[in-house]
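Regression check, iron/sulfur cluster case 400:
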Amino acid sequence: MVATREPAVVDRTTTLETLLQTPAGKRMMTCIQCGTCGGTCPYGDTMDFSPRLVINMLRGGFMDEVIKSESLLQCVACYACMAKCPRGIRLTDVLLPLVKEQVLVTHTPMPAEFQKSLENMNRYGNPMGESPRKRAAWTATAGVKIPIMAELKREVDVLWFVECYTSFYARGQDNSRATARLFNALGVDFAILGNEEKCAGECGQLTWESGLFESLAEYNMKVFNKYKFRRLVTGDAHAYNAFHFRYPMFGLTQPAEHTTQFLARHLDRLKPMLKKPLDLTVTYHDACCLGRATGSYDEGRALLQAIPGVKLVEMVHNRVNSLCCGGGGGGMWLDTYYKQKGMDRLSDRRVKEAIATGADVLAVACPYEISRFEDALKVVPHTKPIVVRDVVELLAESLA
Ligand code: SF4
Ligand code: SF4
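Current build output:
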């Protein structure tokens, strides 16, 4: 049901020059130029070089042309091209990041907001530039005790990796408080890293800064190795993606789970605790890093359907066909750049679909989506009220 993608087939030393000698690169040679990737790409119509053309240029030895173009600034790492490629070619997580890295080197300075976020990740360990000393400040408002690994000094079952938006961003902290209540209700033996945690770095990996990703991954692995825990759980779909597919290359041996996967595994015990009916029509947005990236489509839906009074309705595009929120691959910090190029925001497209369902709630399972969709709802006209809530927020509300 989850993590159906095969492990990475390139190692940390692979470059654009050596790619075609790797198993993933050899598979790229089998591309039949069907155009499915470009056709399914949400920005495929505005790119000078769609994924199909990038492959063709790579095979022909013309990558300089691709790198000179800003085309791949428009890739939001949504995994649509990779999920639908009939040849199983690793576009989103192998080819495109390697090309983007060269784009980054060639086109400096990059769009200012994007550049600043990367600098913040490097300097402060989070894209917002918040003080690392404030990372665990949200725990004071959690309403339940949040154990910190450095203070606990014993093995725990679950190391909960809170991540950046859910630590620092006020609306994101609602996710953390809800998760804490759910873990507490289930009696989960957990702890967090507190101020020792830094961004998992997935955005560095898929936004063309492999050096930044590696330094963050190496730092986090050093911290992980100080402690004993049986599994790593995070509510951030991007961090989960990095932990599941990339961190094993840095020595991570414990299994990683997204919060929705962890809670769905405990649904037998959780469901009887969900006593407060919410009486809401809810539509669920499949996060790219959970759905297309790992095949995890059912867990979020199963959790929502366990809440008394919730009626689940689907948007036109769902599961593998879900529309991206536009926040991945650096898109989170490229809205101004896209607007200057006359491109529409993908989050606006997505909330139009949510509004069309008549739902009261657009439910999400990734911290980026809260801010992206709440912003989109401020500008996309709608008459019936609709709010954005994380799945864990709805579950915690039903616990009352
Ligand atoms: S979908 Fe796959 S096979 Fe088809 S053009 Fe794109 S990379 Fe090639
Ligand atoms: S990952 Fe998504 S945005 Fe990037 S090229 Fe593929 S389909 Fe387009």
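Comparison notes: The mean pLDDT is 93. The longest helix spans residues 91-106. No diff flagged against the previous build.
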